[in-house]
Amino acid sequence: MRFSLLRPSAFIAILLWTASSLAFAGETASPVIPPSVASSLERNQIPLDAVSISVVEIEPARPGKNVAKKVLDWRGGDPMNPASTMKLLTTLSGLDVLGPQYRWRTNVYTDGVIRQGVLKGNLYLQGTGDPKLVPEELAKMMKDLQGLGIQKIDGNLFFDRSAYAASVMEHNTIDGEALRAYNVPPDPLLYAFRTLSFQLGKSRTANFIDISYTPPLSQLKVSNQMQLVDRSCDNWKSNIRFNLDPEGVTNTAQPLTAQFSGAFPSSCKGVNFNVVALDANTFLTQGFAAAWELAGGSWAQAPIGKDGSVPLAARLLLQFEGSKLADDVVDINKYSNNVMARQVLLTMALDKMGKPATTANGELVIQSWLKQNGLDFEGLVIENGSGLSRNEAISASQMNQLLLTARNLPVGDIFYSSLPIAGTDGTMRNRLMVQLRKFLHLKKKPEARIKTGSLADVRAISGYVMSKSGKMYAVTSFINHPNAWRGLEAHDQLLSWLLEDGPEPKHAR
């Protein structure tokens, strides 16, 4: 007979798990993590005191009312850094406070007049924080402007951002990566996430590299000086050099050149290079100008966009409505969009407490909503509502209380549908693929709808698991430790354990 040796912490965890699993007849939660999870944590040098786990089974008590039965609790009451799982609190409260049909409005004013197809005067754009004002939406706005009889604009662009306090628009980062798209700050007139997205790939017709970009900008051209190399597509970014000329643009109508040089692997079929390289006014000015020109409109002269409040004498030309909050929440949760989440928090502040919106007022709205729903989250820290923070904190058991509350709200199904599905989409697209194949023969497939979170020293999961027997579990786990990046396997083991119904049925009743 051969014995395997376990380190003391894993050995103790498994012993306690075996003993505690016998206590389920009394409906008490196990205080210890399952052996497969404990072993993974041990292998990856993640101490148990750096981990919190809470699992509850959600059961219907009466029509329209669900209750939770504790299944597992390991340090579930300790406030931890949740990374992007904090978006669950922001999106659920946003859906319930604002309503899933809520639409942001971007108002367009003028101080001029329209004569013979020419708008003689300035345009003023006043934003309310539409988080998804993207090229497709801006194209609709251009069509609406043309519907007013405008073919040519003889005037400038002014941007009214008075909906937000100046402090929330400051470009502060927790990692110094100011050019990365995930660090874009909130903006009442946020266009296309202020991100230039370049698509790079080997040409189908020649030994050449094709580069295209979105959104269209009126004064941007691409200089492609890259060389094709016979190399694996792994780490393709490391050999590319990007420069925007001129740097530090102050004239929003100034011609720009995006310069690419270095080596590009011929095996890459198509990759995206995303960069936040322009200030908000330049990006919006050139984006608006390009959209107007693509719609067939013209300018008397290239616009120079500036900050400016809407004059009292200006008249409203257009009130443009963006996409529905319910649709935007899908993007936030499935793809973990930070700036969209931050703008939902600020929208709650704007809608309930007036302008200028502040994060502090957004937190007050969320705290009021928690109280209305009977939730007292001691130790909760909200810094921006997206989880892109070193200070935000919530406990695993509080997160599960939130997930239970969602099941009892009218917006619960919309919220549930917004979460990434393991093995299917979003940030869970490539997770649990092997485990889920085991259930292909079942008529009703189990599933895991899980919001993920990651920062340096943080890994997190929170969401719902529908097990193979049809039980619904709410599960949350946080790892706060320098080795947290190694914790993905342990989290997958936890989710796999729940897909298989966690505790053995004979122990669970």
At a glance:
The chain is of the alpha/beta class and 509 residues long. It has helices spanning 8-20, 35-43, 87-98, 135-146, 280-294, 325-335, 338-353, 359-372, 396-407, 412-417, 433-437, 488-499, 505-508, and strands at residues 51-62, 65-74, 103-110, 113-115, 118-120, 123-126, 152-154, 157-160, 196-202, 209-214, 220-229, 240-245, 256-265, 271-275, 298-299, 306-307, 315-324, 447-455, 458-466, 472-480.
The share of residues in extended strands comes to: 25-35%
Number of helices: 13
The largest β sheet comes out as: 5 strands, antiparallel
Structural class by helix and strand composition: alpha/beta
Strand order of the largest sheet: 2-1-20-19-18
Sequence stretches where pLDDT stays below 50 over 5 or more residues: 1-27, 505-509
Strands, count: 20
Q: What form results from the Cα inertia axes? A: globular
Mean pLDDT: 92
Q: Gap between N and C termini, in Å? A: 35 Å
Portion in helices: 25-40%
Radius of gyration: 26 Å
What would you say this structure looks like, in words?
The protein has helices spanning 8-20, 35-43, 87-98, 135-146, 280-294, 325-335, 338-353, 359-372, 396-407, 412-417, 433-437, 488-499, 505-508; strands at residues 51-62, 65-74, 103-110, 113-115, 118-120, 123-126, 152-154, 157-160, 196-202, 209-214, 220-229, 240-245, 256-265, 271-275, 298-299, 306-307, 315-324, 447-455, 458-466, 472-480. It is α/β, with parallel strands linked by helices. A five-stranded antiparallel β-sheet has the order 2-1-20-19-18, sandwiched between helices. α3 packs antiparallel against α6 and α7 crosses α8 (359-372). The relative contact order is 0.18. Residues 1-27 and 505-509 have low confidence and may be disordered.
